[in-house]
Every structure is written in C-alpha cells, then in structure tokens.
Amino acid sequence: MAETIAPNELFDNAIEKYQAGESPAKLIPIFIDVCNKSPKLDSAWTCLSWLYLLEDKPQLAIKAALKSMKIDPFDAQTRINLAAAMLEVKQSGVREHIELAKSLVEAAPEVRAQVVANFEDGFSRKPDWASLKRIEKLIFED
What we know:
Helix 1 runs antiparallel to helix 2 and helix 2 (about 25-35) runs antiparallel to helix 3 (about 40-55). This protein is mainly alpha-helical. It has helices spanning about 5-20, 25-35, 40-55, 60-70, 75-90, 95-105, 110-125, 130-140. The chain has one domain: Tetratricopeptide repeat domain (Serine Threonine Protein Phosphatase 5, Tetratricopeptide repeat, Alpha Horseshoe), CATH 1.25.40.10. It contains 8 helices and no strands.
C-alpha cells in the first residue's frame, strides 16, 4: 500500500528542495500536484508562479498568480510575481499591483523582509532579471 503524503508536507518538502538548490523545472510538477490537492493554498500558487517566472513561462506565471490573488488579494509576493509576468508579456495594468505590493511592504516589516529575501533569491537564480529589477526599484524607491 503506497503512503500518500499530505499536501502541506509535500509543500514543505518542495520548499526545502527549492532552498537546497533544486531546479525550478523539477519542482514545478510537485507544486502543480500541491495546487491540485489543495487549491485554496495561496502560497503554493504563489510559489508555482515564481517557478514559472524562473523558467521563463510568464503566461503560466500569470495564471498561477491570479489563482493565488483570488484566495489572498493582499499578498505582496503574489502581486510582485503577477507584475513581473505582466511586464514580461508586455501586458498593461502592472501599476496597481506594484502600488499595492509597495503599500504592503511599507506597512509590515516582516513582509518587507520576506520580499527583500525573495528579490535576493530571484537575482541569485536569474541575475539579469530585468522585470524583477524594475519592480524592485519601483517598490523601494522613495
């Protein structure tokens, strides 16, 4: 009898693999599985959207970010992911997502710390990520 792993455990294991340097391409199927098993787990959709961005799949990143945003419209990282994907496909409407992310980052030090860490992670994995650099500048400019 095969043991089934709970979606939260699967999610935590995938995050650990990501942090250990596993490639986004190998993690995407795991996050798709988590999202299918727990469709209301907004953090899984946000992670999936990030992985799609790292793999240069902005259209899929938009779809995942929009699903996350429906669950939690006030998640800064989801808004950043969505804005990055929209910039990459030259879609309009980016400003509202950046402005909301900026206000969330300014309002909560823990959100700011997480977003800063995510920018650093993004640039370590994709150093010339133009859309993310642009968003970082817009969020942290005075």
